[in-house]
């Protein structure tokens, strides 16, 4: 409902750039842009997303800090440093993930 409230959170979590029409685009312009569609009324059955964003382990703290400063909130750090669950001001979630703290791959 409030694009200006949620866009800074997603910019911080994804680490992308704001481009034309206030879309978010990866800095190399290789992947798809994230576009925020204005809605007239909440649609709880359709307005919830959850993205996992995997970053280098030393990038995660800064990414989380920027997301919180952009209006996000920490939902859970119970699985850190494997991942932290964050939410934007409207409750959409993102996990900032690293390789640390993961179960090792099974060996044959």
From TrEMBL:
Pfam families: Glyoxalase_6. Residues 2-97 form the Glyoxalase-like domain. InterPro entries: Glyas_Bleomycin-R_OHBP_Dase (IPR029068), Glyoxalase_6 (IPR041581). SUPFAM superfamilies: Glyoxalase/Bleomycin resistance protein/Dihydroxybiphenyl dioxygenase (SSF54593). Transmembrane segments: none annotated. It comes from the Bacteria. This is Glyoxalase-like domain-containing protein. It comes from Terrabacter tumescens.
């Amino acid at each position: 409902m409030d694009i200006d409230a949620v866009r800074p959170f997603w910019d911080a979590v994804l680490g992308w750039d704001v481009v034309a029409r206030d879309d978010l685009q990866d800095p190399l312009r290789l992947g798809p842009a994230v576009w925020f569609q204005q809605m007239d009324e909440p649609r709880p059955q359709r307005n919830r997303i959850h993205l996992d964003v995997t970053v280098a382990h030393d990038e995660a703290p800064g990414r989380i800090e920027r997301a919180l400063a952009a209006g996000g909130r920490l939902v859970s750090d119970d699985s850190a440093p494997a991942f932290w669950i964050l939410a934007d001001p409207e409750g959409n979630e993102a996990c900032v993930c690293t390789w640390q703290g993961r179960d090792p791959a099974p060996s044959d």
